[in-house]
Amino acid sequence: MDEGMRQIIGKEQIAARVRELGAQITRDYAGRNLNLVAVLKGSFLFLADLCREIQLPLTVDFLGISSYGDRTTTSGVIRITSDLTQPCNGKDVLVVEDIVDTGLTMRYLLDNLATRKPASLKVCTLLHKPSRARVKTPIDYLGFTVPDVFVIGYGLDYQGRYRNLPFIGVLDPPPAP
Ligand code: 5GP
């Protein structure tokens, strides 16, 4: 492991939880028209592992977003930088996100996607920081709850780096807010 980094959720622990989530989603969406909508970039590894644990026909699409904020927190001013490639009306949309922190990004995404008339709209997030919630976010499938720390790895970055780590960790010392 690199110096200045501490692992908080290991590779095997992530794999086991992703398997459980995949099994649960497989049961819940049997016979439905499942469309996974992954939020770029942070959820790309989670999506790749999760979709292979779902034993159902499904489609995958991506939403690129950017939020204006300081280095480690969001301002809540969010913009779609790359839209879905297919309409999602009539589909059972499951948003796949890396982390719900203040909840502002998810609130924006859910409001936006709801206007497109999906058959259903639910949320699957790998991580949740409940202590930082600023708006109530419905989370239907949750990997892990994390404390109020800035996490990296398994898709999550700090200044564009660390996404390729196979585990979730924290920088030590933590980045300045
Ligand atoms: P929210 O709008 O819920 O405050 O933040 C959501 C977005 O902020 C996430 O999709 C993620 O991109 C970023 N974010 C929030 N907390 C963390 C964190 O601890 N680590 C990293 N790498 N990104 C985070």
Description:
By secondary structure, this protein is of the alpha/beta class. The chain has a single domain (5-171), classed as Rossmann fold, CATH 3.40.50.2020. Helices cover 21% and strands 34% of the residues. The chain contains 3 helices and 9 strands, in the order βαβαβββαββββ. A 6-stranded mixed beta sheet has the order 4-3-2-5-6-7, with helices on both faces. It has a 3-stranded antiparallel beta sheet with strand order 1-9-8. The longest helix has 18 residues, at 11-28. It is globular. The model has no long low-confidence stretch (mean pLDDT 93). Guanosine-5'-monophosphate (5GP) binds at residues 42, 74, 97-106, 150-152, 156-158.
Helix content: 10-25%
The number of strands is 9
Strand content: 25-35%
Q: Please describe the biggest sheet, giving its number of strands, its sense, and whether it closes into a barrel.
A: 6 strands, mixed
CATH class: Alpha Beta
Provide the residue-averaged pLDDT: 93
What labels would you give this structure?
177 residues; three-stranded antiparallel sheet; single chain; Rossmann fold; alpha/beta; six-stranded mixed sheet; binds guanosine-5'-monophosphate; 21% helix
Brief characterization of the structure:
The chain is α/β, with parallel strands linked by helices and 177 residues long. It has three helices and nine strands; from the N terminus they run E-H-E-H-E-E-E-H-E-E-E-E. It has a single domain, classed as Rossmann fold, CATH 3.40.50.2020.
Question: How would the blueprint of this fold be written?
Answer:
Elements: E1 5-9, H1 11-28, E2 34-40, H2 44-51, E3 59-69, E4 74-82, E5 92-100, H3 104-114, E6 120-128, E7 141-145, E8 151-152, E9 168-171
Parallel strand pairs: 2-3, 2-5, 5-6, 6-7
Antiparallel strand pairs: 1-9, 3-4, 8-9
Helix pairs in contact: 1-2
The chain binds guanosine-5'-monophosphate (5GP).
